[in-house]
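Before any further analysis, we paired sequence with structure tokens, yielding the entry below:
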Amino acid sequence: MPPITRAATAELPTGEIFGVTADALEMIGVFGGTLHCYEGPGGCRATGLYFSRSLPRKPIHCTLHPAGGPGNTTGADADAPHPGLEDLTLSVGHGLSAKLDGAVLDFGNHNRMQRFIWLELPSAGDARCGCRRSFGARTGKRSPCLDKQGVGLTDL
């Protein structure tokens, strides 16, 4: 697997820092410049990972920095600032915020679906499903996989 190239870092007010790939930044712009990441019930694990184009009442807003800023990420374009970074709004839900330190948000063709995923989510450890859409304790053989349900972007 090639190294993950972070185009930006996102910093939460509570100090957690996570990476954002260039593909994710580009698609946030394509989808209107706003992305909200949150967790909820569903999926083959106890907690599902979801993305929305609309913001809830009290989102936790991230401050976006070009790669090489806070978190001192490395990669091929670590020194190249991403144009329009200040025009993007990235926020997370209260339940997910504490779990994002060291994570990497990506957009791409994962399991034959174009979608956002958390490419890395260190806080989940090994308790993640294979499609990276859920984490936590298993919920049983009959639990629906978010990939099979085709859950992509949602609106809150």
User: Anything to note?
Assistant: Confidence is low (pLDDT under 50) at residues 70-81. The chain has one domain: 22-138.
